[in-house]
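Minutes, project check-in
Item: structure for the 240-residue chain
Input as provided by the requester:
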Amino acid sequence: MATAARLARVPPFERGITIGDFLVPVRLGERISTRARDALLVVGGAALIVLGARISFQVPTGTIEAVYATFGVSMQLPANPYVPITLQTFGVLLAGAALGFRRGLATTGLYLALGLVGLPVFAARADGHFAVGTENWSVVTGVTGGYIIGFIVAAAVVGRLAELGWDRRLGGAVAAMLIGSVVVYALGLPWLAITASLSPGDTLLYGLYPFIPGDALKLLAAAGLLPAAWWLVRRHPEER
């Protein structure tokens, strides 16, 4: 409790409230139970993550290196056969922040469960193939499995910070998203190193460096949406 009080950015009576509490239309929210409303939000959050996983990017050779070069960093990145570039992280961080600790945890847990029962919800492999059926188990236990587990922890952490009001202002939202991203990589990189038998340097080369520029953009986009959404809520307090 003392730790939460130190981290809080809102008064005690506003803690635990996230922007997700205002996403269900008032008329619909009045007709359904709290559990049903939460279930709708969790399903919607999982759908957002699935959509992000289905959107992958083929970045032209040299583009990421050019971005680094603008900051005075010289880097040569090889073709990456391990980790695809998608919008998954954007969906995970946004869902966690919008829905809070419990619903964010349930959302990413549902996403993992959908994969484990065989649905093609995970990002495509390097060859463009989406795993389906029992193939999904190899995705979870394979080189990118640590990132997927990291999604669950990151959504919970970012969700809790959102409940404490970090998402109300841009600076706090960026900090929360950055912490969530660190959590994803903290679990994803060691897992990648072990399952792919990579050295520490190669692990960073394949699992971190190619994603920093894109993650920075996704982080800023997700962080920017939250204060904007709160501004809209405050503009129409009668709809609370």
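Outcome recorded: The chain has a mean pLDDT of 88.
No further action items on this chain.
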